[in-house]
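Anyone up for a design puzzle?
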């Protein structure tokens, strides 16, 4: 057993399984997908650490792979089915995309950083995620041309949820992101019922704010 394989098993057994992740498909996917393939070269050795994995060091636009337990719980809340079409926003280097590809029919990933998008394409090809595609574009715009989607994942925090993304959900669709309100972050589930939407908090969580999702300052005369 390679060192990375051993670390992958420890990650699932110590971080994911004890965190109320009851959908057995998710731990299996995390055991199958080599997270180190999606880690920057200098950080491969900490690919299985208990926490967010830094992808970029920009202070004002820091990007990460979400902590394994946080990502697993968010994916579980999406309740992805094998025939579902999924939108993965802010995919970074594509780890979440690879996991979602093992649970669904097709995954469309969107990444605003062209360097990360290129790394995602390469990593997804390495792990054989043939049902996933990576597009470069603004995260808050999504990918309406290939929608609507059964499930949408945002890999980070938001301060507002644009109506344009909610509109890309199918009827009975689900969307999960980390919503910041009053300085507190909570993983939150949005659902669509015809022309209406609701949302409810799932669990406390923190993550860097995704590009394009800062609240716009109100104009005051």
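Challenge accepted. My sequence:
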């Amino acid at each position: 057993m390679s060192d990375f394989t051993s670390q992958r098993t420890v990650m699932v057994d110590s971080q994911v399984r004890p965190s109320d992740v009851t959908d057995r498909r998710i731990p299996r996917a995390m055991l199958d997908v080599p997270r180190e393939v999606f880690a920057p070269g200098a950080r491969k050795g900490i690919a299985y650490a208990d926490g967010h994995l830094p992808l970029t060091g920009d202070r004002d636009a820091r990007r990460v792979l979400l902590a394994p337990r946080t990502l697993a719980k968010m994916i579980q809340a999406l309740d992805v089915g094998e025939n579902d079409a999924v939108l993965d926003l802010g995919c970074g280097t594509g780890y979440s995309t690879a996991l979602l590809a093992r649970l669904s029919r097709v995954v469309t990933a969107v990444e605003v950083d062209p360097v990360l998008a290129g790394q995602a394409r390469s990593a997804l090809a390495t792990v054989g995620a043939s049902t996933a595609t990576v597009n470069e574009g603004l995260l808050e715009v999504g990918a309406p041309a290939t929608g609507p989607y059964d499930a949408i994942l945002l890999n980070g925090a938001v301060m507002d949820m644009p109506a344009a993304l909610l509109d890309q959900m199918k009827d009975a669709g689900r969307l999960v992101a980390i919503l910041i309100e009053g300085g507190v972050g909570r993983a939150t589930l949005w659902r669509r019922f015809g022309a209406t939407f609701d949302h409810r908090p799932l669990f406390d969580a923190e993550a860097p704010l995704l590009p394009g999702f800062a609240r716009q300052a109100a104009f005051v005369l």
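A detail worth pointing out: Confidence is low (pLDDT under 50) at residues 217-221.
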